[in-house]
Amino acid sequence: MSTDELLNRHRAVMPNWINPLYADPIELVSGSGCRVTDASGRTYLDFFGGVLTTMIGYDVPEISDAVRRQLDKGIAHSSTLYLIRKQVELAEKIAKVSGIPNPKVFLANSGTEANDTALLLATQYRRSNQILAMRNSYHGRSFAALAVTGQRSWSATSLSPVNVSYLHSGDRLRGVFAGLPDAEYIERSVADLREVLATTTAGDVACLIAEPIQGVGGFVAPPDGYFKAIKEVLDEHGILWVSDEVQTGWGRTGEHFWGYQAHDAVPDMLTFAKGIGNGFTLGGVVARGEIMDCLSAISFNTFGGNPISASAGQAVLDYLLNHDLQSNAARVGEVLHAGVRGLNSPIVAEVRGKGLMLAFELVRPGTLDPAPELALRVLEETKANGLLVGKGGLYGNVIRMGPPLTLTEAEAKEGLDILAAALAAAHQQAVTA
């Protein structure tokens, strides 16, 4: 069956709000290391990893073997009505590396479920449905997760189970805090938080949920130390802080294992997903024990932390730690960041991110006007030359990259050559338009 036939079948039975990338979408049929192959036999260097999910690459024997060992036992599922050894072992390992005091872990299937659970815990613990969230944020596609998402293009409904007040995002390119030095940015953000608490809430706020680096938002981030200052205000009011680490966790930023650690403060809860499963469905919440135990009704997750996903998660975490992939993210990430900055492209307004979490924002030459059409051109050009990248940002004009943490310096330089050619083609389009 041709890719065109598959696309037609996709459009006939799948929702029209699920849109594959590219003018001519591709089907990925195999992969190895940091490379994938499509149905036509074309191979690509993957700098997006299924949206930062294939964290340690494709066809990793340690993961495949762990999953096969569990499959060979004949038990793929039992539910938490029974003890699940792999689930307990994984939870113990995650609790140990979380940095949360007195931690307990709830395992789910996705970042959406993780964030939904964190909101449930916070609202129950605080007996309030008032939430603080960030503008330009994204936290998932469930009813509650959408309610705290601060991007119109991802907000499928205005209906909400929670009452949300939004703080300013970390956007330093545009907006009311544009161009401010770090200290002044943090000072004004704290003042804004105090004003929001005094004016748009009833006082008994449950939590702040925030991404240390906004994923879908285009890898926008506040300065280091921001959340320490913010948490000092939250603590005055007993408000919990939930750090959404779905994209920033597991050493991806290079300098720290978790995104929150750049701020010299510890959240009350953190949520995780994506990379820990390396493609297997796995997510969850780490919370202080008294918060995790606050539910008075019975609750569980049928598939969350099932023996297959938990086996994969353990193998991923062990591989990550044993091979010190955080250090690799720092080292190879610096090659990528320096390489993109060194291109000095007139259509790149800002390069953002940390470690192997890199984005750049495309604008029309000589302006700060967002150029989503140039982002599309870069997507098509990189694909044509054997590189897969992602797209995002409030205006759809940001190229996002989150390659496997196993990426080598040689592969980074290979990708940079392709990016350079793509940016040159996009610039030519901009000046001739």
UniProtKB/TrEMBL annotation:
UniProt-listed Enzyme Commission number(s): 2.6.1.44
A Gene Ontology molecular function term of the record: pyridoxal phosphate binding
Entry keyword set: Aminotransferase, Pyridoxal phosphate, Transferase
Pfam families according to UniProt: Aminotran_3
Cofactor(s) the protein requires to work: pyridoxal 5'-phosphate
Quaternary organization: Homotetramer.
Similarity annotation: Belongs to the class-III pyridoxal-phosphate-dependent aminotransferase family.
Protein name: alanine--glyoxylate transaminase
Organism name: Catellatospora coxensis
